[in-house]
Design brief:
- There is one protein chain.
- The protein is an alpha/beta fold.
- The chain has one domain: Alpha-Beta Complex (Lambda Exonuclease, Chain A).
- The protein contains seven helices and eight strands; from the N terminus they run βααααβββββαββαα.
- The strands form two sheets. Strands 2-5-6-7-8 form a five-stranded mixed sheet. The chain has a three-stranded mixed sheet with strand order 1-4-3.
- The protein starts with a strand and ends in a 19-residue tail after the last helix.
- The mean pLDDT is 85.
- The structure holds iron/sulfur cluster (SF4).
- The site of iron/sulfur cluster (SF4) has 13 residues, from α2 and α7.
Amino acid sequence: MNDYIPLSMLNDFIFCPYSIYLHSVYMESDEDLFKATPQIKGTIAHQGVDEKKGSTRKSDIMSLPVCCDELGIFGKIDIYKQDKKLLIERKNNLKQIFRGQIYQIWGQYFCLKEMGYKVDRLAFYEISTNKMIEVDMPGEQGKIELIEFIKQLKDYNPLSTMFKVNPNKCIHCIYCNLCDKTTNDNVYT
Ligand code: SF4
């Protein structure tokens, strides 16, 4: 995989490497065919931002397409508060922040940085609890970690990489119904 990779794939790859194969296969298909409930909720959570309803402040930039040539990634940010130099990613529920979600927001940060925006703080906003949760900036070490992770993702080949199916993950996987590695349905069906 030599092309630029979407930021949303970073979290998928940590959850299950095979899912990025499905992510690619089904990205162009009818979303209703494979989206499970959590992802639909996530889409709705982002809809407000995509439709520019997430904030009325003129200084807030919402739903901006971003890209980073250095890391080979692209995607969209949720909200960038120019006055606070704060980048925010909205989530419906955040019982736990997974490493893939951190990589996603770090990726957004590096895109913005390369595009000339100054970002001093990163945060997740949990919609269900109306809570802002700040996370660390990547720093040099975080950048190295992210670059290595992106390399692993780009090098991944589902045909040549050993892969062990984890049924506990499959039942919570949004691609479960279309995945050839399991015959079970996910819990959202
Ligand atoms: S259904 Fe299971 S094997 Fe298939 S992508 Fe999801 S987690 Fe991976």
